[in-house]
Design a protein that fits this description.
single chain, alpha+beta, Glutamine Phosphoribosylpyrophosphate, subunit 1, domain 1, Rossmann fold, 6-stranded antiparallel beta sheet, 35% helix, globular, ATP-binding, ATP binding, ligase, asparagine biosynthesis, EC 6.3.5.4
Length: 1118
């Protein structure tokens, strides 16, 4: 399950480089960039195949569900001629593999999609007679320049086809990848394929033809066969190598899927409990019935509640992901969008659902109006044909926007063929129903309910009337949406609807509002034509409103945290007027939600909004739930609701603080770790910083006094930026990308500082002031105390309610953190195995050392091997996420981005790492050049102060780009204060080291290694020389990235570097290349000034290149 993207030259000839947004892009770069717009579909991995001589580019964005470790795409034939990218689950791949193995001994598919390549080689386009599943794929045979493109019979997998100005063909899972460059775009028709030579006649051909599509069937219903066939369909949809669950609305369709899945899984494990999820507003009809089913099947059930405002905030995001403006689709999708985000946060990667049943059984309430059997059947055929632009489009795109695969057993091809071959007399609802030859008034989907009336569901659910999903989650939402839209669309605008939108002219202000948003994101006539309107049959006398409640048949049913933060504060505490933004009028809440959305990768689990319009305040929290998973929703409020907090951080001593607060207030219990900030503020005001330990950035607002308190942790582990717009309003965000478009003044918030007061008079103060920052310390090293302090720091960083692991580079820093974490966790569980990860090119120096450590501590270790081309593809992405152009940071971050993406795919949400040790112990190899103790210590102080611009920036932003929290025990405040208070004589590397008052040549970080010399690490690793991370992943990496940058920058361009970039002028072509990309994304001098360059001390005689290999002391690790 994934995203696919392809560009195919119209004549099979090379495609020349293109200028895109001011930069020249090769076919590979251009394809990688465009496919990146759907990378949410495949958060686990990107695979690229380029055949430049043929003008062919294939890109695959992967969500690993089957063949997690072996299913990397593109896939290739044995001879390398056939290349495949597939967004698919082939449910009968095991049987097909067995058949293939008879012809090809020892055939073993690495994943389910592998069989497509083999079937193509054996059967060509005849392969569609053999495969069962949901799929969209592009296959290219370079031996004949033949392309094969196909989409499953019902369009479960989205696929678009476009043509650019040069006539080249574009294929993509989502339209957003092509709308900018393709004036011609269409939905690829379900049940069709294209096959032929590039440059030839490439028109879609139908492969899915069934009698029921043209004829009225006459086969009577057999309810025992309905039961048997549906159970078989669910069984095939349970093939999965990752955690999965089921959506449970409380309607008969989703409830049956959950019940059958439970029954099947209990054949192997009688104690099995399915994870189920329902969504709704408080008091929604669905919750009651979903709870009944969950109790009946004994599932592990979660109810996810939302407010109307939560959904309204997401309208723009939703339309972007849906690529539709259809009212029914948008309405249904908003709650599901909210639910998908929560489900993903639990570690679930695949979810079962009940889509398709209403189309094939005639379940919509307007079907009661069908005048006769023939029209009823034809309308069902129409509904099945339109699934790909309505229910299936919604189900796939909403869940895949969060990297979550949704499966729909009701749309198993053989099951659909059977049900659609049943005569309409047995399925039509109302008085015309003639099941078993008896005409009587029967409810919708009667034969489905009848088939499962024995012990599958509570009768109250089995015979519950159809509730449209957008109704069942809570009636208030459907009533609020038209009101919300009306505020955005004036009568004058709406009166000109047919002029502005001659295609699919909107009939209501709600439809007009959605259409405006769609056109802003997907301009052009052909994009508008990809959308089809879902409405009941008006010629049957049905009302146009798609809500089930509008139909006469409807019954009157009874009714800790790591993240991103964002805030806007009016300069005078007065309301901020709506503004025209990207062509549309936006309220303060809408502007804030939209801008915060640019950092939503930081908080994929939940978005919380506090809007105080009368004071011109908006505060937003994008949540990654780590501690207080079920209770830590933000913004957080004081008991009287006067104090509001959005916090990005982990307060490690919150349990001790809670105990202290409880002594004052009695029975205090925080909802999550950040709750204590509010209580401390109310007790101590701005002096609260004397009490908390952790990594944090937060914004607190006291609406009684219109007072703001914002702060950042002492070392800038958590990023934060502050800006000022043209009206003088104050903006705050975790990432600069949220501000730079609207704030001409932007700066990084200084670590160890807080700002306090009203928006127009924020007082700036430093709260973190230590003696070692201004004086040369004289305390001798105590190795025992050093070891104890680091163990304590690691222990405090292990508070976590989700799966976690550790980065393991094979250097002493990350290895010690992993070893100590293992030791601590085994105090409670002697069999505990830490999950560890390393990354590198093949034969990277780090791999050998990391394996030694993994074996020594018996961790569950994974080596993530990358190719140079894979990392180079991500240069633009990494600069966007890093918000820096510093050479060292970019070099180190590219392999880490690939690693973070892989880690996220395993379900890990928190990771430990070794950042900070080099800064506080003097671990960089250029420290050997320090001329004396004073300069050595002063350089350490400078490196600690600049952590926020280099290692901490990289560690946080790269991992949070994939929704992973990274923790750095070496930067525990108490530990840093201890180590930085040790005299420099004990820490300086080389011949000046005087540890134990014995001067001799010692390795860098000697005292750290000596403190853990007993049974923590193999000696070969403990005493291994420092490898810069960008070197340790493989020496070819740095050499290659230099060459690529040089290829992009001409001598003439580089000669003008000082004119183009007078601030931080780049001194190499590599630096110039990164700077060009940065400036394109983050224009303006203020943005450029937020970046600090990481270079060794040139005045010590060090080379300018930051690579550790450039230092004379470096030893090449074979």
């Amino acid at each position: 399950m994934c995203g696919i993207f392809a560009i195919l030259s119209k004549k099979g000839q090379p495609i020349l480089p293109k200028i895109c947004r001011g930069c020249v892009h090769t076919l590979r770069e251009f394809s990688y960039r465009q496919s990146g717009k759907q990378r949410h579909r495949g958060p686990d991995e990107t695979g690229v195949a380029i055949m430049p001589e043929h003008g062919v580019a294939l890109v695959h964005e992967r969500l690993a569900v089957i063949g997690v470790k072996t299913g990397r795409q593109p896939l290739y034939s044995d001879d390398g001629n056939v290349t495949l990218i597939a967004n698919a689950e082939i449910y009968n791949y095991l049987e097909l593999a067995e058949s293939i193995a008879k012809k090809r001994p020892n055939y073993n598919p690495r994943s389910d999609c592998n069989v497509i390549v083999e079937l193509y080689e054996d059967y060509g386009e005849g392969l569609f007679e053999l495969i069962t599943g949901m799929f969209a794929f592009v296959l290219y045979d370079k031996s004949s320049k033949t392309v094969l493109i196909a989409r499953d019979p019902f369009g479960i997998m989205p696929l678009y086809i476009g043509e650019d100005a040069e006539g080249n063909m574009w294929i993509s899972s989502e339209m957003k990848c092509m709308v900018e460059f393709c004036p011609k775009i269409k939905n690829f028709p379900p049940g069709h394929y294209i096959m032929g030579e590039l440059g030839g006649n490439l028109n879609p051909q139908r492969f899915y033809n069934r009698p029921w599509q043209q004829e009225i069937p006459c086969q009577p219903a057999d309810v025992s066969l309905v039961q048997e066939r549906l159970e078989s369909a669910v069984r095939t949809h349970l093939q999965c190598d990752v955690p999965f669950g089921a959506l449970l609305s409380g309607g008969v369709d989703s409830s049956l899927i959950a019940s059958l899945a439970t029954k099947i899984m209990r054949e192997r494990d009688p104690n099995y409990r399915l994870r189920t999820f329902s969504v709704g507003m408080k008091g929604s009809p669905d919750f009651k019935y979903a709870r009944m089913v969950a109790d009946y099947i004994n599932s592990d059930h979660t109810e996810v509640s939302f407010t109307v405002e939560d959904c309204l905030d997401g309208v723009r995001d939703l339309i972007y992901h849906l690529e539709s403006y259809d009212i029914a689709t948008v309405r249904c999708s908003l709650p599901m969008f909210y639910l998908a985000r929560y489900v993903k946060s639990t570690g679930i990667k695949m979810i079962l659902s009940g889509e398709g049943a209403d189309e094939i059984f005639g379940g919509y309430l307007y079907f009661f109006k069908a005048p006769n059997y023939e029209e009823f059947h034809k309308e069902m055929v129409t509904r099945v044909d339109q699934l790909h632009v309505s229910d299936i489009l919604r189900a796939n795109k909403v869940t895949m926007s969060k990297g979550l695969e949704l499966r729909v057993p009701f749309l198993d091809t053989s099951f659909v063929d059977y049900i659609m071959s049943i005569r309409p007399e047995d399925k039509i609802p109302g008085p015309l129903n003639c099941f078993n030859g008896t005409i009587t008034d029967r409810m919708e989907k009667f034969i489905l309910r009848k088939a499962f009336e024995n012990n599958y569901l509570p009768a109250e659910v089995l015979w519950r009337q159809k509730e449209q999903f957008s109704d069942g989650v809570g009636y208030d939402l459907i009533e609020a949406l038209p009101r919300f839209a009306a505020k955005h669309v004036s009568d004058i605008e709406f009166s000109k609807a047919s002029v502005r939108f001659p295609i699919n002219t909107p009939k209501t202000k709600e439809a007009f509002y959605y259409r405006c948003i769609f056109e802003e994101q997907f301009p052009g006539k052909s994009a508008a034509l990809t959308v089809e309107k879902w409405a009941p049959r008006l010629d049957w006398g049905c009302p146009e409103d798609p809500s089930g409640r509008a139909q006469e048949a409807h019954a009157n049913l009874a009714v800790v945290i790591m993240c991103g933060i964002f805030a806007i504060f009016s300069k005078d505490g007065e309301p901020i007027k709506p503004k025209v933004y990207h062509g549309s009028l936006h309220s303060l809440r809408e502007i804030a939600y939209r801008q915060s959305g640019k950092q939503r990768h930081r908080g994929p689990d939940d978005t919380g909004v506090c809007h105080i319009p009368e004071q011109g305040v908006a505060m937003i929290h994008e949540r990654l739930a780590i501690v207080g998973v079920h209770t830590g929703h933000q913004p957080l409020y004081s008991e009287n609701k006067n104090v509001i907090l959005v916090a990005n951080g982990e307060i490690y001593n919150y349990l001790e603080l809670s105990s202290e607060i409880a002594k004052i207030r009695g029975h205090y219990k925080p909802k999550s770790d950040c709750n204590v900030i509010i209580e401390l503020y109310e007790e101590y005001g701005e002096n609260l910083f004397e009490h908390i330990t952790g990594m944090f950035a937060f914004v607190l607002y006291d609406k009684r006094s219109k007072t703001i308190l914002m702060a950042r942790d002492p070392f800038g582990i958590i990023p934060m930026y502050i800006g000022e717009d043209s009206d003088g309003n104050v903006w705050v965000a975790s990432e600069m990308k949220c501000l730079v478009e609207v704030c001409p003044k932007v700066e990084a918030f200084t670590p160890g500082e807080f700002r306090f007061g009203k928006a127009d008079n924020l007082i700036r103060r430093t709260y973190f002031q230590q003696q070692w920052q201004s004086e040369i310390p004289n305390m001798s090293t105590d190795l025992t105390l050093l070891r104890t302090r680091l163990e304590s720091a690691v222990r405090s960083h292990l508070q976590c309610d989700v799966p976690f692991g550790a980065l393991l580079s094979g250097g002493v820093d990350s290895s010690l953190v992993a070893s100590i974490a293992t030791k601590i966790r085994r105090e409670r569980d002697p069999n505990f195995r830490l999950t560890t990860f390393s990354v590198g090119l093949r034969n990277a120096p780090d791999f050998k050392a990391a394996r030694l450590v993994a074996d020594y501590i018996n961790s569950d270790h994974t080596e993530v091997v990358f190719e140079i081309a894979d990392a180079l593809d991500g240069i633009r992405d990494i600069i966007y996420h890093l918000e820096t152009y510093d050479v060292t940071t970019v070099r180190c971050s590219l392999p880490m981005l690939l690693l973070a993406r892989y880690i996220k795919s395993t379900g890990i949400k928190m990771i430990l790492s070794g950042e900070g040790a080099d800064e506080i112990f003097g671990g960089y190899l250029y420290f050997f050049k320090a001329p004396n103790y004073t300069e050595f210590h002063q350089e350490l102080v400078k490196r600690v102060a600049q952590l926020c611009d280099s290692d901490c920036l990289r560690a946080n932003k790269v991992t949070m780009a994939k929704g992973i929290e990274l923790r750095v025990p070496f930067l525990d405040t108490a530990f840093v204060n201890y180590v930085m208070s040790i005299r420099p004589e004990d820490k300086i590397p080389g011949s000046l080291n005087c540890f134990g008052d014995e001067q001799k040549h010692r390795i860098e970080k000697h005292i750290l290694r000596a403190a853990f010399a007993n049974q923590y690490l193999p000696d070969e690793v403990l005493w291994r020389q420092k490898e810069q991370f960008s070197d340790g992943v493989g020496y070819d990496w740095i050499d290659s990235i230099r060459r690529v940058a040089t290829d992009h920058i001409s001598d003439a361009e580089f000669a003008n570097a000082s004119e183009r970039f007078p601030i931080n002028t780049p001194t190499t072509k590599e630096a110039y290349y990164y700077r060009c990309i940065f400036t394109e994304m983050f224009p303006g001098n203020d943005a450029a000034k937020t970046v600090k360059r990481w270079v060794p001390r040139l005045d010590w005689g060090c080379p300018e290149d930051p690579s550790g290999r450039a230092q004379a002391v470096h030893q090449v690790h074979q």
